Amino acid sequence: MTERLADISAHIHGIQQLGTVVNAMRGIAAARAQQARGQLVAVDSYAATIAVAIGRALALAPAPRPDGARQASRPAIVLFCAEQGFAGTFSERLLDDVAGDLVGADLFLIGTRGSTVARERGIDARWTSALPAHSSGIPKLADQILEALYARIATGEIDRLDAVFGQWQPGRGGKVERRQLFPFDLAAFPPSAEANLPLVTLTVEILLNDLTVDYMHAQLCTAALHAFAAENEARMEAMAAARAQIDRRLTDLRATQSRVRQEEITIEIIELAAGETASRDAVPLRN
Length: 287
Prior knowledge:
The chain is of the alpha/beta class. The chain has helices spanning 2-58, 90-98, 112-120, 138-154, 204-282, and strands spanning 75-80, 106-110, 127-129, 160-169, 173-182.
């Protein structure tokens, strides 16, 4: 009985240590998600500024604007999955969403955990990369993605590009978001309301090329930040569920510990009482 009580106590201690780890992981995920959400505000503002600049530069272009509605013959998808585990079915949901679009498309897969899940499903990615552990590394990741993409866009291998990522909604959980990055939807670049055209020192072609590169970089940063925040929000939810399970397990174990201790005390009392009775019976009666 004593050995059983010791085992239960050791089990309780182990689960308490596990709870400490779960709490730490939940706190780290919360801090990272909050940081990413704060950075999204700056990136969205930057992208909006570039969009205005592109709209003004398009007014300088002598050729009519393309309608941007041509049919893509070789699409590509930049898919942002989870970098680490303990995020529930985050990567699985994203892969399920794009499963029907992968035939005949190039897949650029971001996230180590997502790459593992993709390989288990027999999905081959054209290009893979890890998602940074900290959101401050996302601009560099966007540079790497752009470098891989433009090499293929320039040779005509890709004529349509979509970004697919998770986006967390407070109180409603995550959803899968899809945005077309290329060709540009020119409706996103409204013409300038100013009567005077901007003075430029570059040719319109070079100016528009530089602005579109910056705009796509901003869009990739936005997608990666949403994915980074959503993964950490999913991890927070998974850790909250684990914490609840740990609390329930500790409650059960402590109840068992109390019952076993009570049984042990009861047995000791019975043994002591039996020993006392036996000792009294052994004493000879005097006349």
